[in-house]
Structures are given as structure tokens and as C-alpha cells.
Specification:
Mean pLDDT: 89
Number of domains: 1
Helix content: 40-55%
Order of helices and strands: EEEHHHH
Amino acid sequence: MIRITSIETFCNEFVGFVRVTDETGSQGWGQVSTYHSDITCQVLHRQVAPWVLGVQISDLDDLLDLVTEREHKFPGSYLRRAIGGFDTAIWDLRGKQSQKPVVELLGGKAG
């Protein structure tokens, strides 16, 4: 299984993007909430990244549950927004790796 090697954010107060890179160099992009995105990006680096860097991305649901469990003392909306940005970046990465639209990976059809 492939491991996550880096998580980068590109944020200001109004918009924030997440780029996840795996050990093959493949990348996925996600977006965090547009409300105080700069704060959400800090939360992602402080509360999400420590639990997911170096981890295999075979079971995304279990990985996100682990983050929520480990950060249970801070379950606020900023953590949820940070997890959402990471989640969408991983789905984008999976789509690129499988050369399929994410909608197909989720069971739907494109178009």
C-alpha cells in the first residue's frame, strides 16, 4: 500500500487548498471551508497531519475515524473542515491513481 509523504496547504483567510502527496509522487487536491480558511489550515497541520503522515491510505474511513478519536477533545468545526479538505484530496489522489473520475469511485457515473 502507498503511504502519504506530505501535506501542504495554500491558504489565506478566504480560501484554502490542501495538496497531499504519496510516496510515488502522485498528488491529490482538496479544499477546506472558505470561512477562516487560514485557521482551518493550521488545524489541519496540527491535528490531522500528525496522524496521517506516513500512513497507508488503503482505508480512508478508518484513517479519518482515527483522527477523530485521537483529537476527541477538540471536535469543533475547524477540525471537521480540516478533515474535509484532507478527505477530498485523498479522493482526488485515488481517482488519479486509478485513472477514473472520483464519481465512479463513489459508485456514480460521470456526466
